[in-house]
Design brief:
The chain has about 130 residues and is mainly beta. About 5% of the residues lie in helices and about 50% in strands.
């Protein structure tokens, strides 16, 4: 399993969710899963259940989780079917044509051969 850490350097339009947005923007499109504690902060975890997002960057989405702290989006987990690690890296790796999303936003990407899924996460630096 390979893990790559990159600052999220992409245009805001390309991602369906923005770190820091209010819960009310998605409240009718999510289902509560549980609550987790990461460090000293508590996060409400929701699964995005609206079927309007089937593909992101042209890759088929398996599921999306949104983590909120005090109704502020702090972390997004997107799982894609299959091994799209290299192709996905081409979309999220920094390039001079992309605007910096936010210096406080980080990302991780990895592929699980056992589950045959690629997971992309982006989050604020406090998570």
């Amino acid at each position: 399993m390979a893990v790559f850490l990159y600052p999220v350097v992409m245009k805001k339009k390309r991602l369906p969710f923005t770190i820091g947005e209010q819960y009310e923007l998605n409240e009718f499109s999510v289902c509560s899963i549980n609550e987790v504690i990461i460090g000293k902060y508590s996060y409400d975890v929701y699964e995005y259940i609206d079927k309007d997002i089937k593909y992101i960057f042209g890759f088929k989405v398996k599921y999306i989780q949104l983590l909120y702290n005090a109704d502020i989006l702090s972390k997004v987990k997107i799982q894609f079917y299959g091994n799209v690690l290299i192709e996905l890296l081409n979309h999220i790796a920094p390039s001079e044509n992309d605007a910096i999303f936010d210096n406080q936003v980080k990302s991780e990407i990895f592929y699980s051969p056992i589950l045959d899924v690629t997971q992309f996460e982006y989050f604020d630096s406090y998570v």
